[in-house]
């Protein structure tokens, strides 16, 4: 696996392959986002997140279940944090794979 490519048309013969680096970065950030939501926030492998009452008077660290419906958009429902990270991580993984294996090969290299 190399991050460089040879191109005789440019002044510098060795250049960074930025679309490949971007695809790898997007994939790894998607894995981190998905892992945080699916494992840490839900309490599957981790403590969960800080959940308090609407006034912020009492609270504790506890696992939360993802809320996939409309209630997940309510800022007072902690399940929206888990579902957002799982969905955004999945999208980031798919976009990173697309960028790495499909989009990056479409240029003239």
TrEMBL record:
Topology class, membrane: Multi-pass membrane protein
InterPro entries: PS_antenna-like, PS_II_antenna-like_sf
GO molecular function: chlorophyll binding
Subcellular localization, as worded in the UniProt entry: Membrane
Signal peptide interval: none
Database matches in Pfam families: PSII
Transmembrane regions listed in the UniProt entry: 21-45, 81-102
GO BP terms: photosynthesis
Superkingdom to which the source organism belongs: Eukaryota
Any single GO CC term annotated in Swiss-Prot or TrEMBL for this entry: photosystem II
Keyword tags: Chlorophyll, Chromophore, Membrane, Photosynthesis, Photosystem II, Plastid, Transmembrane, Transmembrane helix
Protein name: Uncharacterized protein
Organism lineage: Eukaryota, Viridiplantae, Streptophyta, Embryophyta, Tracheophyta
